[in-house]
Amino acid sequence: MAVPSDAVRRVSAVADDALGDDDAVGLAARLRRREVSPDEVRQAAARRTRKIDPTLHGLTLDRFDEPVAGNNDGPLADVPMLVKENTDVAGRPTTNGSSAYTARPAPAHAEVTQQLLDLGVALLGSTRMPEFGLNASTEFVDAEPTRNPWNSAYSAGASSGGSAALVAAGAVPLAHANDGGGSIRIPAAACGLVGLKPSRGRTALNAQGAQMPINLVSDGVVTRTVRDTAAVLGHLDRGRRNPHLPPIGLIDGPSRRRLRIGLVLESPAAGTVDDETRRAVLDTAATLEKQGHQVEPHTLGVGKQFVDDFLVYWGLLAVGIVAGGRFGFPEFDASRLDPLTHGLYRHFLTTAPRRPGFLRRLKRIAHTYDDEFVHHDVLLSPVLAHRTPPLGHLHPAVPFEELKDRLINYVGFTPLQNVAGAPAIAVPGGQDSHGLPIGVQLAGSTGDERTLIELAYLLEAERPWPRLGQS
Fold it and tell me: Which CATH number characterizes residue 206's domain?
């Protein structure tokens, strides 16, 4: 039988070595039992990454030979991990996916970097992202794109695209990611991973996000298993409790509680959800109903006005980069920013005067979002409105108005939780006709990561998702 062309393009690093096919929790247990040594694990991660990265282009900085070691007594001691390139690691450049400035070594760890090191992980390098995280695909005008390991002709999503590509391919069991509009959930969906955007303040406040009028950014991880996500968030929360949020605890499986789940199939952007994505969400709903949960249609209380306001705010972030970059970055040259950044900058200048009050309306979302949960415990929706696009569809050089419309239609389901500061998790919900993963999203009220993780455990048990490298 002829091998399908899509299968030829799959990229997997999984091998019979010290990493094996373990997730982070399983690997940490083997390390504690001394079945493998930290050096063996690190060398295996280095070999895997260096084997596949010439194809995937997920790595910005290779420091496998000089890792930053974490706490020897941490629950994930010596588990290899990568950090997204917008997050400071002392002594290493923070490049933000941009060629517009010269990155210099960071003077100190970001707070979230230190949180991860407290878990014990060994930081082995940095992963790629699109310029300043503004795009939903990790593509560049002056460099190779980051490719999806399920099919290297397709996008790995963004902005945590490098992290997702390398975890999905099996180079490392987990990687750091952050999310300002879907940037954990989008690449998790594209690459068949688990990606939880925590509530605002659940992890250390992101320094870049804290400078925004509305802090959209939450830090977390992308993983291949629910228990890895549960372990990381649970231990991070235990190590740095936010008294304004309920504790997560260490969650090890689904709950027996029967939930009311709102089914959301209409994007606030009013874009059309494609048939394969809709089918994946409906199949997930059927699984939840079979397990005793009540699923019923739900219409979000926000619509096109929210999308238009968010787009103006997105442009405001670009204004900060274009106009303020020279104050924050050495040798900054705005002319070297990519066309999407410049397009968003111009969009703000021309549109903001016609949308007075956009910031006030967005801030109000944080106070009204939990009204979505008066009659439901969780909202089930697509992560993205259509299947993962081929590379080039969201390239930053696509004419701005066309690219803007493509992005709005693609990512209409994810920004709401960023504005609200609420949690949402992406989990695999199936595959499209080309064998690419389709993600589904579970969203909760502020502080209720526990319910989302418990439901994710249930879906993982009832509908185990495929992983690259599995026989």
Answer: 3.90.1300.10
